[in-house]
Amino acid sequence: MKSIIRQYMDYISIERGLAYNTLQSYQSDLLFFEEFCRNKGYDPMGDSARSAVMAYLISLKREGMASTTSSRRLAAIKSFYKYCLGEGITDRDPTENIESGKRSLKLPGVLSVSEVDVLLNQPRRDTPAGLRDKAMLEVIYACGIRVSELTGLNVGDVNIEQKYIRCLGKGAKERIVPMGRVAANSVQEYLSGARGRLTRGKATPALFINRLGSRLTRQGFWKIIKNYARRGGIRKDITPHTLRHSFATHMLENGADLRSLQELLGHADITTTQIYTHLTKSRLKEVYRQSHPRA
């Protein structure tokens, strides 16, 4: 099975153009399944394939694995067997009619508008690093981009005059995202002198630079945002993705339609975007309970 998994990985990498992290997840999920079959004596490419899948799913449930994780593993297995059927490696799909359990809805954490204001006003603007941090925070909230998209930005990807950025999302899909006036001004201020001091004479296309003069990493930004949240007295557990979630929620609360938000966030499937409608509904209920005299 391992050799067929390698063939499958080559296929989804070339034909479907999936992001590196997604490819790694697919591969690890399939190797977990292969190891289970080997240890339990199942032939995943033979007559016992369906029994193997069922036994594997039962084992995941007994281990107490989160429904989201087991659903993702089943999705990888189903995709693998669909490939095998299409390539004539197997004559039937052992996962046919096998559905994952109902996935629990996990609402992402968000900040209120006032909390966002506090966070974005934490960086000092009298140092190169402070100007960089101010620009980064403003851009990720103004555009709702992923942290990998933020750190992957090059200088040429930002149009200050027209107020938009060009970024590469999952699967190397390019999209153009509008950038607000405040974010554009912050980037302009950063580019005017701070970035040149941070590069230390190194030639690099990267927009956001670390203290060594190289492209800032996702881990580096994670430390930065944690520090500013602590400094601002924000007690919520904040990650770089929190500002993306906050962007989406605030857009919906102020009248944005779901399709437009899907385009801005770079979601391939609108069902991914729909989680924010649940989030805004939960906040509406909270407002109702606090405001209605008979709530």
Could you explain the architecture of this structure?
Helix content is 59%, strand content 4%. The chain is built from 13 helices and three strands; from the N terminus they run αααααααβββαααααα. The protein is mainly alpha-helical. A three-stranded antiparallel beta sheet has the order 1-2-3, with no helix packed on it.
Going by CATH, the homologous superfamily of the largest domain would be Intergrase catalytic core
Number of domains: 2
Task: Give the strand line-up of the largest sheet.
Answer: 1-2-3
The CATH architecture of the largest domain: Orthogonal Bundle
Uncertain stretches: none
Taken as a percent bin, the fraction of beta residues is under 5%
Which fold name corresponds to the CATH topology of the largest domain? hpI Integrase, Chain A
Largest sheet: 3 strands, antiparallel
State the gist of this model.
The chain has 295 residues and is mainly alpha-helical. Helices cover 59% and strands 4% of the residues.
What features would you highlight for this structure?
13 helices; mainly alpha; 3-stranded antiparallel β-sheet; 3 strands; globular; 4% strand; hpI Integrase, Chain A; 2 domains
